[in-house]
Specification:
Blueprint lengths: L17 E2 L6 E2 L10 E3 L13 H19 L4 E3 L12 H10 L20
Parallel strand pairs: 3-4
Antiparallel strand pairs: 1-2
Helix pairs in contact: 1-2
């Protein structure tokens, strides 16, 4: 999470550059500073487009991080991102950039499946 409030949640990553309050799409750089909490889901999804060269994706993410910091300066900001899949591992650097910019990071691990012994009767 990028923000100054230690009680806020920060999951690794998310930049579709869109905030969707009540169905309205707002470009991240146009988002006003408010005291309302902001939730950005799967922010790195847009940067995984293989048609965009990795250096360009890094540059664009670098341009968005200050906007995230700005929003986090006035209200809680939660940003989420999925772990990189095998096909997009070369873009792990984007997740690393997002985590480095965060005040707090929570990595959620899958809950292990509990195996039950089959009943005899």
């Amino acid at each position: 999470m990028i923000g100054q409030n230690p009680s806020t949640l920060n999951c690794p990553g998310c930049i579709s550059a869109l905030s969707r309050p009540l169905g309205n799409q707002v470009m991240l750089e146009e988002s006003p500073n408010t005291s309302d909490p902001t939730l950005l889901l799967d922010i790195l999804a847009t940067f995984l487009d293989e048609s965009v060269p990795l250096p360009e994706s890094r540059k664009l993410l670098g341009q968005y991080l200050p906007h995230l910091r700005r929003l986090a300066g006035t209200a809680p900001l939660v940003v989420s991102a999925k772990p990189m899949t095998t096909i997009s591992l070369e873009r792990q650097v984007l997740l690393d950039m997002l985590q480095a910019a965060a005040d707090q990071c929570w990595v959620l691990e899958p809950v292990p499946e509990v195996k039950r012994q089959m009943e005899l009767f």
